[in-house]
């Protein structure tokens, strides 16, 4: 579920029935399972095909370490109040080396957990992009000491991408597949 969507509310656009899936959606669901994010967005095939390429690159083919990627995605899901995104990325974050305590701390202020400098900089970037629409010079300097220009571009694009995904999931009221908050990838 996403923001403002109690469990008894219906999605605004239902997932595409399996008999209507095209080859692109079939290939995606063969890898991920029939996740509602994909089966809903696939109702707009040309947009879905373009979007899935960017999303796949950021999620599976990017340069950022998995820990940094999932910190940024979960912080963004938190900021956008998107439980669907949160639930699907929680397991990926655990796989990327975050602990359950760290994942829980992502929903709190930066000073409410003893984050290391690297984690703190990624979380600060997500916070600043959410709140200001840009990254402060201080945070950029911290990130630049660790990442090259390609990783910096990717981090900003990743956070922006997951803001967009969360907005779509929330507005379309995409429901979790099991009615809960846990899941695979989105």
From TrEMBL:
Limits of the Carboxymuconolactone decarboxylase-like domain: 45-128
SUPFAM superfamilies assigned: AhpD-like (SSF69118)
Record field: transmembrane: none
EC number: 4.1.1.44
UniProtKB keywords: Lyase
Single Gene Ontology MF annotation: 4-carboxymuconolactone decarboxylase activity
Keyword Signal attributed: no
Stored InterPro entries: AhpD-like (IPR029032), CMD-like (IPR003779)
Protein name: 4-carboxymuconolactone decarboxylase
Organism of this sequence: Actinomadura algeriensis
């Amino acid at each position: 579920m996403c923001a403002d969507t109690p469990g008894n509310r219906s999605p605004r656009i239902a997932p595409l029935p399996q008999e209507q899936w095209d080859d692109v959606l079939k290939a995606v669901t063969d890898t991920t399972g029939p996740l509602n994010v994909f089966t809903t967005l696939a109702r707009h095939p040309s947009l879905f095909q373009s979007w899935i390429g960017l999303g796949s690159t950021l999620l599976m083919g990017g340069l950022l370490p998995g820990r940094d990627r999932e910190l940024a995605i979960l912080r963004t899901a938190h900021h956008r109040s998107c439980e669907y995104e949160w639930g699907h990325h929680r397991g990926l974050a655990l796989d990327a080396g975050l602990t359950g305590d760290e994942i829980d701390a992502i929903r709190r202020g930066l000073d409410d957990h003893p984050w290391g400098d690297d984690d703190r900089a990624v979380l600060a970037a997500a916070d600043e992009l959410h709140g200001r629409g840009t990254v402060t010079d201080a945070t950029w300097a911290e990130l630049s000491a660790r990442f090259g220009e390609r990783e910096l571009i990717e981090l900003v694009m990743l956070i922006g991408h997951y803001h967009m995904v969360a907005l779509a999931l929330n507005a379309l009221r995409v429901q979790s597949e099991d009615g809960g908050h846990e899941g695979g990838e989105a």
